[in-house]
Amino acid sequence: xxxxxxxxxxxxxxxxxxxxxxxxxxxxxxxxxxxxxxxxxxxxxxxxxxxxxxxxxxxxxxxxxxxxxxxxxxxxxxxxxxxxxxxxxxxxxxxxxxxxxxxxxxxxxxxxxxxxxxxxxxxxxxxx
Length: 128
Hints:
Helix 1 (about 5-30) runs antiparallel to helix 2. About 20% of the residues are buried. By secondary structure, this protein is an all-alpha fold. The chain contains 4 helices and no strands. The chain has one domain (about 5-125). The mean pLDDT is about 85.
């Protein structure tokens, strides 16, 4: 049975998956580069939650001859990997979309879709 911290990670994972899917859907429907960037960032957040679960699972491994003190410190390695992913994925996506918008700017075409995604995101994140 998962402990309380693992349940929180599962709840956040569910919320992040729903947010990422809604943002990808909105990016597809509206063609919004900002929504695509946000969808990529939300997908990176989803991967982060999965890596936290991997780190939590691996940190609970029993001590062995090779790891006499156990694997408890692995959680710190996986949180470091998560930090790198957040910075790289979010930064690269933002820079790429920024360059694309400067090169060929587009007016806002469907703000209601973006506002709908904002409302869905608030609902999903708030409930998780």
